[in-house]
Write a sequence for this structure.
């Protein structure tokens, strides 16, 4: 049976070209990059080349790029590291984030709150998942030290206006002594949207390899020059003394290669690259088709939506049941995010968007990748209505 993988927001397959670029660094070029002998220098050079590609891609300097083990680790490092640093200057830092962030941000903020190191405001979103800039500005206090807002939500694909928020923060900062730092979780945006750190006006940006066809277990944290944080991992002095532990050379090479591939495809086809417009057409076909099923609605924003995520609420059906039946037919989708499914609480993202728990249990997410074809969508649109119909017949409601 053919597998139609439509869960690319959860993780992606490693691209064979990326895998081949990594392979020599397992088998032959395995030196420790901290050593000065030849194998060490070969490893060091590979790391620095990858760092240069990534820096260039986001319009940063290579000194501003820190390799970590995941986006989650990057977020822990920026948030805990910054707050620990600022605490030493005696004020009580305040963080502003949103109710729909990934757990990596939410749990980190909750932790900082629970140990009394920071106060946190969780901004509401509207029914489409957007935050309001006036509400954001009103939430700023004299103590506000960090604003952390995800670029693209992984469950519903809604895009926040990061560069507008960056401008707002810049204006606020011009009028005060203690500046506010701005972080964005760009994990779901890196492949498809503008991620120039200067254009966005961010001080921190985080993302991960496994959502962009590099392996799991490699992440990046961009830290703007001059911004000070305290390291959260003690040991050696790797990564500008901010992330101790021997560098994962093959994975760093893989991530660099993934970014080079994205960068090539973005630049070769003018501003709106072809792959994105193809993906948008495929996404539209999927959304239009699924919405033909009775009692189904789209979640997230109609226009401000990343091209790879389409999420729905299907009335009278359990999301998990749909996922299992689709999976039996080779169609891999998801209900809620991987981090929240497995527990039966409704998705915090859908709740924040005003969707009641009994509805959000019927959530279904398809996330596309470059391998997704219009024919795949035809297959989904052929099978899904029957599955929904069958499940509704079985359901007691
Ligand atoms: C996947 C994801 C993360 C976590 O990335 P890991 O590398 O798995 O820690 C964080 N934020 C968003 C938006 C994600 O989609």
């Amino acid at each position: 049976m053919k597998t139609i993988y439509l869960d690319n927001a959860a993780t992606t397959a490693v691209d064979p070209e990326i895998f081949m670029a990594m392979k020599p660094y397992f088998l032959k070029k395995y030196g420790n990059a901290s050593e000065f002998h030849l194998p060490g220098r070969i490893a060091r050079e590979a790391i620095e080349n990858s760092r240069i590609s990534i820096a260039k891609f986001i319009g940063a300097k290579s000194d501003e790029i820190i390799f970590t083990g995941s986006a989650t680790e990057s977020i822990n490092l920026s948030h805990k590291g910054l707050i620990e640093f600022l605490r030493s200057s005696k004020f009580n830092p305040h963080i502003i984030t949103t109710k729909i962030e990934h757990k990596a941000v939410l749990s980190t903020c909750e932790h900082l709150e629970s140990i009394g190191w920071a106060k946190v405001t969780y901004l509401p979103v509207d029914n489409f998942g957007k935050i309001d800039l006036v509400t954001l500005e009103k939430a700023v206090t004299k103590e506000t030290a960090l604003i952390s807002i995800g670029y693209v939500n992984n469950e519903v694909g809604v895009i926040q206006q990061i560069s507008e928020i960056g401008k707002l923060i810049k204006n606020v900062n011009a009028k005060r002594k203690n500046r506010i730092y701005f972080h964005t979780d760009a994990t779901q945006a890196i492949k498809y949207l503008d991620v120039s750190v200067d254009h966005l006006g961010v001080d921190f940006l985080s993302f991960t390899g496994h959502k962009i066809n590099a392996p799991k277990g490699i992440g990046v944290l961009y830290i703007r020059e001059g911004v000070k944080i305290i390291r959260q991992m003690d040991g050696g002095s790797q990564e500008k003394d901010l992330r101790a532990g021997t560098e994962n050379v093959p994975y760093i090479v893989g991530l660099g290669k993934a970014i080079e591939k994205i960068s090539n495809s973005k630049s070769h086809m003018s501003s709106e690259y072809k792959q994105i417009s193809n993906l948008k057409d495929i996404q539209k076909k999927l959304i239009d088709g699924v919405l033909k099923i009775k009692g189904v609605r789209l979640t997230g924003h109609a226009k401000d939506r990343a091209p790879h995520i389409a999420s729905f609420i299907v009335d009278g059906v359990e999301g998990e049941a749909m996922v299992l039946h689709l999976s039996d037919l080779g169609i891999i989708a998801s209900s809620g995010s991987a981090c929240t499914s497995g527990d039966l609480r409704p998705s915090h993202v859908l709740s924040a968007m005003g969707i009641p728990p009994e509805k959000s249990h019927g959530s279904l997410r398809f996330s596309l990748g470059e391998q997704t074809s219009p024919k795949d969508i035809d297959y989904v649109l052929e099978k899904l209505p029957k599955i929904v119909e069958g499940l509704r017949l079985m359901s007691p409601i």
About this structure: The longest strand covers residues 309-314. The chain has a mean pLDDT of 94.
